[in-house]
Amino acid sequence: MTTFFVGPDQTLPKGSAGFKVELPGTASQLLTRSRRHMKALLQGYGDAIVKSRAAGRPVSFRVEVDPEGETVVTAVEEAIAARETVQAAAAPDAELTAALAAARERGRLRAAEILGGDDMLSAKDFAKMLGTTRVTVNAKRQSGQILGLDGAKRGFRFPVWQLDAEGRPYCELAALHERLGAPWAVYRFLVQPHGELDGLTGCEALERGKVQAALEAAESIGRDFR
What we know:
alpha+beta, 10 helices, 7 strands
């Protein structure tokens, strides 16, 4: 069936099989010149009828028309569904959020346990062991020459095992900080065994004089996290 948009004084073409929609003259002229756009509009309207009958409920669609008569027909239901999908994807999964929170709490408790160990000294006690001042200790910590771990409640703590046989901090600590970045990364490297070091920890490798191997292992680990 063909649809004809005609003005008040116009009639359907003789013998046509369709129906008449009377519109003001200006609107009729514009629509007549925009057949492609009207086809899209009527198609959207027809689709809405089909969807409404199939669903047994009202549906809606949106029509946007610019000053030039360009027409965009959007199924509102589809637009809403797409937006809800994006919002659902963006919303954090409750299970994942809880798991991350639990992991952070375990990390916090583990850090507190480490910093509370007998091998961890305050800046004052570490300075006394080195025969220097707290100011010097903190300056060397900031430059990476000394390993100091930050504790929220205890302040910085300094592991005693970072000292060599002569009671001085390993001179490789600055190079380890450069390769691994954060102090806690240096700590993990020093206390954990590494395949590249034949199962030795970083600290054990330094104790046994395997300095170059330790630095190469640290470089490899640091590169993996860049």
